[in-house]
Amino acid sequence: MNEAIERVKVLIIGSGPAGYTAAIYAARAGMSPVLYTGGQPGGQLTITTDVENYPGYPDGIMGPEMMEDFRKQAERFGTQVRYGMVTAVDFSAQPHVITVDDQKTIHADTVIISTGASAKWLGLESETRLNGKGVSACAVCDGFFFRGQEVAIVGAGDTACEEAAYLANICSKVYMIVRRDEMRASQIMQKRVMNNPKIEILWNTETDEILGEDEVKGVRILNNKTGEKREISISGFFVAIGHQPNTAIFKDFIHMDQSGYIKTIPGSTRTNIEGVFACGDAQDNVYRQAVTAAGTGCMAALDAERFLAEQENH
Ligand code: NDP
């Protein structure tokens, strides 16, 4: 039982573009980083298809493939990539104490938080009950099950548009449920859905209930201008209404905004705790792109390196 507690210089939590980029830089700086992947190794890009806006890939690349490349590059320079979930932290003293899978304890001189964000849900009882039985937050993962069938997607951001267009390639019809009379998505993405004959946009519309006992059979929608309710027959219901940062385990120590995004000191990845840095979507409510996440991952590794150098000089 008295297993020696492992001590690491840099512990990276999360395996999206931010975490792996931090790992590449930390490994190349000789800091022997240990990276825990979390529950979704590779992060959000592993549930997307083509990534067309990451510089260096003129023909685009599939998200999962890109994240494999990130992992290989991090490992090439000596990062230890481990499959596991950080379940608790204690940042009250140096070194920081990290618990993995409720079992293993690690002492870390520096911690880089790159835990990203996860999909939000509407919060309907029927949505929870039918999750995995026709309700999904990932068109790319589950769209195939509804080949040739009619589906609905909720949301009006870039994600909803991208997923609606993806579903339209597979399904016979896609209803897009939009709660206002305009979309938040970029113009180019809006045009893509509006010009797609297989996508019908239902403006000023909310989801009243998802219908079906053991599988999705339809959805009852409410027009919030007229108060009219009606039922549409569908077999897949997709939710694409944004994300929330995966930061709950840090809340007792780290300063965050009201939505749970970690506050960093402007121009750096430093948090309110010495030696703890945050990068990627866990601290970015504005840009939320793979390339910006990677950029802040690089910053976090450089900040950690400087912090360790200062400690050694004292
Ligand atoms: P966003 O936060 O941008 O959009 C969320 C959408 O969901 C909004 O239209 C919002 O409506 C709607 N919504 C939120 N809550 C509810 C609810 N309870 N019921 C109904 N609708 C709801 O999230 P995204 O995931 O779309 O995008 C996140 C970020 O990622 C953005 O910056 C986006 O630009 C970027 N992104 C870029 C892509 C690309 O460039 N290829 C692809 C995908 C994402 P309302 O507008 O009324 O608030």
UniProtKB/TrEMBL annotation:
<dbReference type="Pfam" id="PF07992">
    <property type="entry name" value="Pyr_redox_2"/>
</dbReference>
<keyword id="KW-0560">Oxidoreductase</keyword>
<dbReference type="InterPro" id="IPR005982">
    <property type="entry name" value="Thioredox_Rdtase"/>
</dbReference>
<protein>
    <recommendedName>
        <fullName>Thioredoxin reductase</fullName>
        <ecNumber>1.8.1.9</ecNumber>
    </recommendedName>
</protein>
<dbReference type="InterPro" id="IPR050097">
    <property type="entry name" value="Ferredoxin-NADP_redctase_2"/>
</dbReference>
<dbReference type="GO" id="GO:0004791">
    <property type="term" value="F:thioredoxin-disulfide reductase (NADPH) activity"/>
</dbReference>
<keyword id="KW-0676">Redox-active center</keyword>
<dbReference type="GO" id="GO:0005737">
    <property type="term" value="C:cytoplasm"/>
</dbReference>
<feature type="domain" description="FAD/NAD(P)-binding">
    <location>
        <begin position="9"/>
        <end position="297"/>
    </location>
</feature>
<keyword id="KW-0274">FAD</keyword>
<dbReference type="GO" id="GO:0019430">
    <property type="term" value="P:removal of superoxide radicals"/>
</dbReference>
<comment type="similarity">
    <text>Belongs to the class-II pyridine nucleotide-disulfide oxidoreductase family.</text>
</comment>
<dbReference type="InterPro" id="IPR036188">
    <property type="entry name" value="FAD/NAD-bd_sf"/>
</dbReference>
<dbReference type="InterPro" id="IPR023753">
    <property type="entry name" value="FAD/NAD-binding_dom"/>
</dbReference>
<keyword id="KW-0285">Flavoprotein</keyword>
<comment type="subunit">
    <text>Homodimer.</text>
</comment>
